[in-house]
From TrEMBL:
InterPro entries: FHIP (IPR019384). PANTHER family: FHF COMPLEX SUBUNIT HOOK INTERACTING PROTEIN 2A, RAI16 PROTEIN-RELATED. This is FHF complex subunit HOOK interacting protein 2.
Length: 104
């Protein structure tokens, strides 16, 4: 319930706030995800009860928008950030760790 409220509040703030450049917005969402894992104790709530899915969805939307705005075959700064910082590998590792903790 709380995560849905924070998600709605986040969307409202994003709608009212001036838009950031895509890369800054992308990095903001990634840092929000990593902040959750750094600051949360071992008694983590299921991911679906957090705002992580909302941040991932925003990151995907940003990558999609960036791709639409670029010339064919050109890599944008958000995709470069994703690749350079190994975000997909990190997400896999975090998901695998959560999966292992669920079955203990």
């Amino acid at each position: 319930m709380f995560s849905k409220f924070t998600s709605i509040l986040q969307h409202a703030v994003e709608a009212l706030a001036p838009s950031l450049p895509l890369q800054e917005d992308f990095v903001y969402h990634w840092k929000a995800i990593t902040h959750y894992y750094i600051e949360t104790s071992d008694d983590k709530a299921p991911v679906t009860d957090t705002n992580i899915p909302s941040h991932l969805e925003q990151m995907l939307d940003i990558l999609t928008q960036e791709e639409r705005e670029r010339e064919s075959g050109e890599t944008g700064p958000c995709m470069e950030y994703l690749l350079h910082h190994k975000i997909l590998e990190t997400l896999y590792t975090l998901g695998k760790a959560d999966e292992n903790n669920c079955w203990l």
